[in-house]
Every structure is written in structure tokens, then in C-alpha cells.
Amino acid sequence: MDAPEARYAPPPGQAAIVEALKRGDERTFSGLVAEFSPSMLRVARTYVSSRAVAEEVVQEAWLGVISGIGRFEGRSALKTWIFRILANIAKTRGEREGRSVPFSSVGGREGEGEAAVDPDRFLDAGRWAGHWTSAPSRWPELPEEQLVGREKVGVVEAAIAALPEVQRTVITLRDVEGWSSEEVRNALDLSETNQRVLLHRARSKVRKSLEGYLDGVQT
Amino acid sequence: MSDQQLTCEELVEIVTEYLEGGLSDAERERFEEHVVVCSGCANYLDQIRMTIELAGRVTIDDLMEETKIELLAAFRDWRRE
Ligand SMILES: [Zn+2]
Q1: Per CATH, the architecture of A14-97 is what?
Q2: Taking CB atoms and an 8 Å cutoff, what residues of chain A touch B38?
Q3: How many Å lie between the centroid of ligand 1 and the Cα of residue A21?
Q4: Which residue from B minimizes the CA distance to A122?
Q5: B18-77: per-residue pLDDT in tens?
Q6: Bridge partner residues of A132 (DSSP)
Q7: A217 touches chain B (CB under 8 A)
Q8: Looking at the domain that runs over B8-80, which CATH code has it been given?
């Protein structure tokens, strides 16, 4: 067996968390629920038809974690293991609802054929073909404080909410929740290229919305 | 490869690959050479970075309180078994 997991070294601190869970430590359990549930809801939402069903799927996944933790041996990251349980439940639930698996089929295509920036923004002929007609402006620096710039965050939030489901999940996990590309690929079963294309389309569209808001450029 | 100039229209399509470290050395060099001389693309790259930073300040939907309470109850029951 030379599976990648065989050589896997768990992140520091994971063994203590797993031990605490096995011991029945409530604070550890609540902490994990608080940390992972928002991402779990987002992932579940790509497989099932509604927010309400996604909530049930996440709940069921946590019950699966509780009943399975005794058998968890730490050969993968706890996070990976939890999201695998979640994905299995969400997939089954989605199939029962008659929804097709979003990633292999639709996910790959969700980002195709869209330009990051409106082609009208570039010259289409001559020596400078492909160069900006109206160049992006320099945006003001963001303030450090979390509270200032709230409207801009609101614009980003609305733009993310308007994205197709899989793009929305990828950008949420990567940029809102700060996951690595590898973690996202594992949780969503995406190829490296797919993950990048989806992230690219998502970020491009959110930037475009911000530009519309900050510079009054039509989107 | 590097004698062929990257256009702005091409650059905006590989900006994610650039930030993800997915470009080859030659491609990365071409990208960086372009950004040095093109303020529009330099601004574009900054705008994408700012987009990422702003996304990091968004808060996302969480479980309902009742669900969390039910889960904690289930965890307690399991511990008692
Ligand atoms: Zn340029």
C-alpha cells in the first residue's frame, strides 16, 4: 500500500483534538462544529436543492462523525475525514432528490467560455491589439480595521452569492474560509485544473462587481 | 517563447495561475515583465489581490442555533453510552 495517506503526518495538535473528542469533551466538539459547519453547509449546498436540506445533511454528517470517531485512526487530516463523510451523505441525498453530481459534469463546464474581463475593454486590431482601451484604475488601499470598508465587503458578498453554485463554493472555501487548493480539491473531488478555472471565473466576476461599485464601470 | 509579448487580454486570463504558482518559469517571467511596464495590468493584479482580501472579510452562513443544540445533545448521549 503506497497510498498518499500512508505517509500522511497529521497537523500538530490534531492528536489532542481527536483524543478529546473520543473522551467526549464537549468544548472540543462544539469548537469543531463552529469551525467547520459554515464550510460544510456551503459544500452540501452544491449537492442538494435547498438550504434546509443542506442543514439536515450537515447535521447528519456530524452524527456520523460522533458515531465514527472511535474508529478514526488519524491517517488523514480530521478535516478531510469529516468532509468525506459530509460529501458521501450530501451525494446520496442529492441523488435521491434526482440531482446529478455537480462537479464532474457541470463543474468542469461552469467556467468555460467566459472571459475574465469584457472583450470590449481591449483593442481588437492594430499594433496594440489585446491591450486595454480603458485601463483598470488604482483602487484605494484597504483600511486595516475590519469595520471600515463594510460596503465593499457587502458588494463582494452579494457578488459571491450571485455566482453559479460550484464557483461559489470554490471561492468561499478558498478566499472566504482560507482553505488551500489541495483541501478544496479533496473536499470537492475536483482536478487541479478544474479548481483553478472555477476559482479564476469566480474571482474575475467578483472583481468586476467591485469595479462597477468603485469606478462606476458598467458590468 | 519570451520574445512573444503577452497582451493585457491574455494576462487577465492567467492571473489566477500566476497567483497560484501554476506558471512555468518562462511564463512567470513574461507575466512579470508585462506588469512592470503596463500600469493597467499592474492595477488589475492589485484589484484581484484586493478582491481576495475583501472576500476574506465576508462571513458565511452558519447552522441554526437549534441544530447546534441538538448536535451537542447527541454528543452527550453518545458519551454516556
Ligand atoms: Zn497590460
Answers
A1: Orthogonal Bundle (1.10)
A2: 131-132
A3: 53
A4: B9
A5: 999 999 999 999 999 999 999 999 999 999 999 999 999 999 899 999 999 999 999 999
A6: A122
A7: no
A8: 1.10.10
Per-residue pLDDT of A5-17, as tens digits, reads: 455 677 778 999 9
**Cross-chain CB nearest to A41 (options B41, B47, B61):** B61
Where does chain A have alpha helices with state H? 14-23, 26-45, 51-68, 78-96, 108-109, 150-161, 165-171, 181-188, 192-215
- Judge whether A61 and A40 are in contact, CB under 8 Å: yes
* B22 CA to centre of ligand 1 in angstroms: 20
Question: pLDDT, tens digit, for every residue of A98-140?
Answer: 876 555 444 445 656 689 999 999 999 888 999 999 999 999 8
pLDDT band at A216 (very low <50, low <70, confident <90, very high): confident
Chain A environment of B21 (Cβ under 8 Å): none
Q: Give the C-alpha distances (Å, rounded to integers) separating A219 from A118, A210, B14, B55.
A: 8, 9, 21, 19
- Whether residues B58 and A153 touch (CB distance < 8 A) is answered with yes
Considering only the beta carbons, identify the residue of A135, A153, A176 that sits closest to B39.
Answer: A135
Interface of A with B in 123-182 (CB under 8 A): 129-132, 135-139, 142, 146, 149, 152-153, 156-157, 160, 171-172, 175-178, 181
CATH architecture of A111-218: Orthogonal Bundle (1.10)
A141 Cβ partners below 8 Å, 6+ apart?
none
Q: Which amino acid is at A178?
A: G
**A95: closest CA of chain B, how far (Å):** 23
On whether the CB atoms of residues A130 and B34 are closer than 8 A, the answer is no
What residue segments make up the domains of chain A, in order of their start?
Answer: 14-97, 111-218
Say what the pLDDT of residue A13 is.
84
